[in-house]
Write a structure and sequence with these properties.
2 copies of one chain form a homodimer.
Chain A (H helix, E strand, L loop, with lengths): L15 H14 L8 E2 L2 H8 L3 H13 L3 E4 L3 E4 L4 H5 L21 E2 L12 H11 L17 H15 L8 E4 L2 H11 L5 E5 L2 H10 L3 E7 L2 E2 L1 H7 L3 E4 L13 H12 L5 E5 L15 H4 L5 E6 L11 E4 L2 H11 L8 H12 L2 H27 L4 E4 L6 E6 L5 H10 L2 E2 L1 E2 L10 E5 L5 H15 L1
Parallel strand pairs in A: 4-15, 6-7, 6-9, 9-10, 10-11
Antiparallel strand pairs in A: 1-3, 2-3, 5-12, 7-8, 11-12, 13-14, 14-17, 16-17
Helix pairs in contact in A: 1-3, 2-3, 5-13, 6-13, 14-16, 15-16
Family (chains A, B): In the C-terminal section; belongs to the class-I pyridoxal-phosphate-dependent aminotransferase family.
InterPro entries (chains A, B): Aminotransferase_I/II_large, HTH_trans_reg/aminotransferase, PyrdxlP-dep_Trfase, PyrdxlP-dep_Trfase_major, Tscrpt_reg_HTH_GntR, WH-like_DNA-bd_sf, WH_DNA-bd_sf
Keywords (chains A, B): Aminotransferase, DNA-binding, Pyridoxal phosphate, Transcription, Transcription regulation, Transferase
């Protein structure tokens, strides 16, 4: 086995895997580990250094992400040829050197991100089988550029699912597929050029809508039931972005009465629309299901949006929106020349996944898994945090909020968790001024990791 | 075998396959063909009706596209359950009925579209093998949301290819992957908010840029060498969109002297940029290769754009752009929160396709195939059209222009071709006022079809 002999310091502030990562990176940059050298497997290196495999994995993953290592399935980890820029970044940079902006932060062992899924349950086998069926020369129609709104059969399969599971009532012809919800929202902005946009505050859309249309955005506060319709009315806005199934980030589920009020608001003014973002409606752990606003609407006032990225696979960029008649007409008359952004093979894969019942099976399976994870998270927090934590928005979705009454501010909570190798997320990013509450997503952590991570947080915060 | 007994009229203006399509559609709507009935295979129905398999295929394809039939690989063609809207469309429509806007026109046997590839040569086997390698639980990192610019390894593989084949010199860190060139151009508009845009006239970008930024667009005429720099200078624009490898649609290749003039123009003013769209640089049949403008630029003035959709697979929505330093900085500071629009599995598939040499092999193979198709097209036109056609822009790319000197206008040429079941495309759509020239793409027609189609055109036009 290749000798990897870092000096690791158990007492250091720096976690062990960051030390290991630094060491290997330096060895590569100095040319001691040269291109195409094979590194020891995680298991062997863990044994050799008396570390956990998790530690080795965290270091390797980061080196892969930064282009120092390459992981070849069933073969192992190899040192990459450095491009000049990576090599240069060790000192003698050219004037025009462009630095890679890192996307993930390597410093954490437990990341409570709200963007992620349970990787162990992903149906790789089904995906493989379906893809093998699709990638055949009989399917050469899939090579041609398809319909701008997405393939009719795929839209039809989604419409059927939405009708059965969410009470959304639509024709496939009023649906548009797109590479992610952000993409579709930007298309919506083009359809609603003269709009004044109302967003939930705090809320997810607050960031995105405000960024692009800051001069035309009204922040609308929430009460226990969601967006306050009286404040919406006063604001003068005509387009309201809402997340009624599971308000992001606060987690309340909008009751039917508030839904009817919202629809009433929309019906009372010309050019008013509601954008219903149903981003994680699939996961609901208690209470009766409430039909989507779109299904309650009889006046072509609701745009319904949903996604496969949240519940199935964040890296699969497939979302959809259902437009009411006046908006689909603007789209078809003026924006039909935009090519579809989702590959046709991906569309066909998901169509079969829906039609053959895999999606429903997968969602049922994940609901059980996530329900259990949520229970563990909530129970552990209650057990570990002495009387001083409050859990918010746990009835559905893939994250909860935790208000920690230990005198720390949001930033202190985050920093202190970081010192214990755990990443929790600020609510202020979504406009909250609460300042003692953080966001914990739990989908991508294992049950054991949730246990350990909450212990870490208890040490960090109390 | 199920009885399909249409009355077909050989003398009708309506092509046979449209008659067949109409008949089957009517049978489904009237309930004579009910859901899940299996239709005869193309071969059997062709024998039964004494028609060519092509005719059956054209009818089936259109029925599939409209949701009446479903094609199940290795099983056959089935009647779909009609959704209410399709059924309703037979008369009793509800007030809010939303009609499917058709994307492809079923009326043509030979479609000279410029968007398409040779379906028979698509490497299904390689795609299947690579996908099987990727869809394994060891690759669970691919489930996580990836880097907003696209995966580093994928960008690195593209950068290497661009350097070797096009002389483009860039770091992976200045590249952004996106779901199609239109998507990336819209992102560029956000980076260049104060820009005044110059586009080639006639040209591809004329349509798209003008649509979104009509109040800030200058049309720049072309001479034999491409965009006229003197007119660009006079226009007051600061951002020039060009297609130097193969001007779209006119087909000229910009010589090195004009490239240097363009770069000089860019260097002479602050905030000036050139957008080099190298959409089909892979196919070049004569003359020496000329390096990309990006490779000649030493002052961070060129945005380079390319795509996998054109040469490999139109329905695979993957394009990329290389930004000069000032623009990548704006992007990284202000737009980094936009999630990547291409699925990570697709990125990984294409990365392996590049790294393992399949892309180069495929391009070499396609170059021979397309070269031959172009030769057949050009030879046939010369043979069939008596002294009165001129072929323009045949040195590269996947389409040519044909100027027909028979006294017909562009619209007459198109209409007359249509009567002979052939679709040719207007140059006026790209701003040309020539009015006797049409565009013929040849990538997706077979050699035999090109033969037959040109004969049809000769009958139609002379």
């Amino acid at each position: 086995m290749l000798e990897i002999t870092p000096k690791l310091d158990n007492q250091s502030e720096k976690p062990l895997y960051v030390q290991l990562y630094d060491y290997i990176k330096q060895e590569i940059k100095m040319g001691n580990l040269t291109p195409d050298i094979k590194l020891p497997s995680k298991r062997r290196l863990a044994a050799h250094l008396s570390l956990s495999q998790n530690t080795i994995e965290a270091a390797y993953e980061q080196l892969i992400a930064e282009g120092y290592l390459l992981s070849i399935p069933r073969k192992g980890y190899y040192v990459c040829e450095l491009d000049q820029n990576l090599a240069d970044s060790n000192g003698q940079q050219s004037a025009n050197f462009i630095k890679e902006k890192p996307y993930q932060d390597p410093k954490f062992l437990y990341d409570f991100t709200q963007i992620g899924v349970d990787a162990r349950s992903f149906p790789f086998g089904v995906f493989r089988k379906l893809t093998n069926d699709i990638l055949r020369s009989e399917n050469d129609r899939l090579l041609k550029l398809g319909h701008p709104q997405g393939d009719y059969d795929f839209r039809k399969a989604i419409a059927k699912y939405l009708y059965e599971s969410r009470g959304v009532c639509c024709s496939p012809s009023q649906m548009i597929i797109g590479a992610g919800t952000q993409y579709l929202i930007r298309l919506l902005f083009q359809l609603l050029q003269e709009g004044i946009f109302a967003v939930e505050d705090p809320g997810y859309h607050r960031r995105h809508v405000a960024f692009e249309k800051w001069e035309r955005v009204k922040m609308i506060p929430l009460d226990q039931e969601g967006m306050m319709v009286s404040r919406l009315e006063e604001s003068g806005a005509n387009i309201a972005f809402v997340t009624p199934s599971h308000q992001f980030p606060c987690g309340m589920i909008m009751p039917i009465s508030r839904r009817m009020q919202l629809l009433h608001w929309a019906n009372m003014g010309e050019g008013r629309y509601i954008i219903e973002d149903d981003y994680d409606s699939e996961f609901r752990y208690s209470g009766k299901p409430i039909p989507a606003l779109q299904g309650l609407d009889t006046n072509e006032k609701v745009v319904y949006m949903g996604t496969f990225s949240k519940a199935l696979l964040p890296s699969l960029r497939v979302s959809y929106m259902v437009l009411p008649k006046p908006l689909i007409e603007i789209y078809q008359n003026e924006y039909f020349f935009y090519a579809q952004t989702v590959s046709r093979m991906d569309q066909d894969l998901l169509r079969r996944f829906l039609e053959e019942g895999h999606w429903e099976k997968q969602i049922s399976k994940m609901r059980v898994i996530y329900h259990k994870k949520r229970d563990i998270l909530v129970t552990e927090i209650m057990k570990q945090f002495p009387d001083s934590a409050e859990i918010i928005g746990q009835d559905s979705g893939l994250h909860v909020l935790v208000r920690v009454n230990n005198g720390m501010t949001e930033q202190e909570l985050i920093d202190q968790a970081g010192r214990f190798h755990s990443k929790v997320y600020p609510l202020s990013a979504y406009g909250s001024h609460d300042n003692k509450t953080v966001l914990l997503g739990y989908a991508s952590l294992s049950e054991a990791e949730i246990h350990d991570a909450v212990k870490m947080l208890a040490e960090a915060w109390f």
